[in-house]
Predict the 3D structure of the following.
Amino acid sequence: MKTKLVLLVSAMAIAGLCIHHVTAQKNDNEKTYLIVRGDDLGMTQGSIEAFDQAIVNGVLTCASIQVPAPWFEAAAELTGRHPEFCFGIHMTLVGEWRGYRWRPVLPYDKIPSLVDEDGYLFTSPEKLFAANPEPDEIEAELRAQIDLALKKGIPVSYLDQHYLNFDELSRGSLIKQKLSEEYGLPISGQIDEKRASGIYNVAVDKKVEEAVNMIEGLGPGLYLWVCHPGIDSPEQNALMHSYPEHIFRDKGVGKHRAEVLKALISYDVKAAVIRKGIILTDYKKTSGISEKE
């Protein structure tokens, strides 16, 4: 009976957490808010399963969709199963995986400065920069990605950028701001969030522990934790980064991303959030938070 009572209390606490409600009694300037953003939804089949689990059972609060990626259609279907969740567009101009390429949303002959000779997105920011991408083509492709997501009925709530600092592109920061204002969407990372350290490069067997440590170390303010959930599958473990220095040496990409998912849904991470009185939030709820800090 005692064991059942403990499990019941734990389940109730986690249920309260997963609907993003924490009842800590603190002044506004003492509160800790945390956005947990998952990137690369739609990149692989494994991403679909992983995000579904993280949304239903984890501390994930936002999901960034890669519109040009091969599993975008499945990602769009997933958003229909979670209409109240916070989804964003992971604006993509680079496809960084060896042998796993994708094309832009627009016909590649309409945006020749954004693609290689075979019509695929470049595999690194350096290769894209070397092609001297035309600002008008950049804007057209990013706009097409947003428009396609909206056409598919995705409830888009924010924008962010994949693997590339758009400010380094010609007129990139202006284009990003223009799209943000035109579509009425905030840009993740640019509403005065403090960047949490994350666990991307942490060893597989240390990710859950480091996620707990990261959460325990958060002070007052609004934070952004960017993560990459996935599953341990042949598909995801076959991924190989185009940069040799970014290749995981201990385990495959699938094992690393599966452990990120494990952290997101783990009791230890949820318990740390509750102990700290952290308020999980997203880009539909952050209006005015950063101004209080």
Strands lie at 32-41, 62-65, 86-91, 156-161, 194-195, 221-227, 279-281. The first helix runs from residue 2 to 18. Residues 43 and 70 are 6 Å apart (CA to CA). The mean pLDDT is 90.
